[in-house]
Amino acid sequence: MRTGIYGGTFDPPHLGHMAAARAAGRIGLDRLILIPDGQPPHKALSAASASPEQRLAMTELAADRLHLEIPVTVSAMEVRRAGRSYTSDTLAELHRALPDDELWLLMGTDMFLTLQDWHDPETITRLAGICAFGRAQGEGEDLFTPQRERLERRFGARVVTVTLSDLVEISSTELRAMLARGEGREYLDESVWGYILREGLYGTMADLRQLALEELRAVSASMVRAKRIPHIRGTEETAARMARRWGADETAARQAAILHDCTKYYSLRRQLTTCAKYGMLLDDIEQKTLPLLHAKSGAALARHVFGMPEAVSEAIRWHTTGKADMTLLEKILYIADYAEPTRRYDWAPGLRALIEEDLDAAVLRGLEITIAENAREGKPIHYRTLEARDWLLAERGEKG
Ligand code: DGI
Ligand code: FE
Ligand code: FE
Known about the structure:
Layout: E1 2-8, H1 15-22, E2 31-36, H2 52-64, E3 72-74, H3 77-80, H4 87-97, E4 102-107, H5 109-113, H6 121-127, E5 128-135, H7 140-155, E6 159-164, H8 172-180, H9 190-199, H10 213-221, H11 229-246, H12 250-259, H13 268-277, H14 284-288, H15 290-304, H16 310-317, H17 328-339, H18 348-357, H19 359-376, H20 383-399
Parallel strand pairs: 1-2, 1-4, 2-3, 4-5, 5-6
């Protein structure tokens, strides 16, 4: 197993780090471990820095968004270790844990050119091969070749160099200064930016109750796994189109869709504490049914953390079960969640046509699909889903 190790302060992890990590695919690694450092030996953390826990969380977001073929994990070993973070200690620990692995230490140009000055370079070069990233033009080989030869001669180091054509020219120090001025978003993955806004890092000082749609999207993205983001985007665009088609407030439809699944990955415990904190009442079934709770906790956060109007919060609250007497916005979110383009089911194409023609018929079909699917899986059907269906059947009966 060839294991790549990429350490850094990641304060914050930016697109330059992500491009470098992606290059790991080009040196034939089987897996990659990102390691945010605890107390970096080469520099003092400034007051405007994120905490180790926050750097860990941002690195986890970035790792999930690399979309590499190989597994990428984030290790908290340096963050948890007391004292300074020495790479030699980290490699020794990894070598003990993974004795059969071939370790490769990934690093940028500046680090590579000073490797002989690190703490215990003998141990580092004995336990790991060195993979240095260089820029495509300029400093490339004229700087790299002599350093590679020096390290090989002096330590018997194994060195490979990779040039990055897509290298992003930004340092975290510059980026933090830009963020404090309301700039720099283009150097960050959307979710990492959203995390920074949500936590108010680096002097961003965003008012979470007044976020623009672009900021709200980023904040929501920072709360979920990468694989859910296309579904949230699809729901937003479908809800926006439905709002125009059926005469609802498009911004409200977008807001509701952006936030509708933001708590989807909360644990049962966190769902319950979030609902309790904001006075969101739960019935007996909800208390025990994790897949239903994100609608309630999401509604609570939408209202109390993100300052959404009640109509938006209510649409989120009822998006999983539906209910009798749904408002237009509630119907739109409910059905956009089903009909959005990333849903791949046999019934999806028919439903996509129906939402353009007859909104109530589409909501009714969505409810019936939910009832049939839960019944097939032997799960209890929420009484509100049944009430919603009966309400729409009665309404349609009266009209017809
Ligand atoms: O959050 P999404 O996956 O986009 O969709 P959703 O909010 O409709 O949630 C779907 C989940 O909720 C799925 O795991 C099934 C579950 N669910 C929906 N209605 C009921 C239900 N589970 C039970 N037990 N009873 C229901 O009536
Ligand atoms: Fe949902
Ligand atoms: Fe959803």
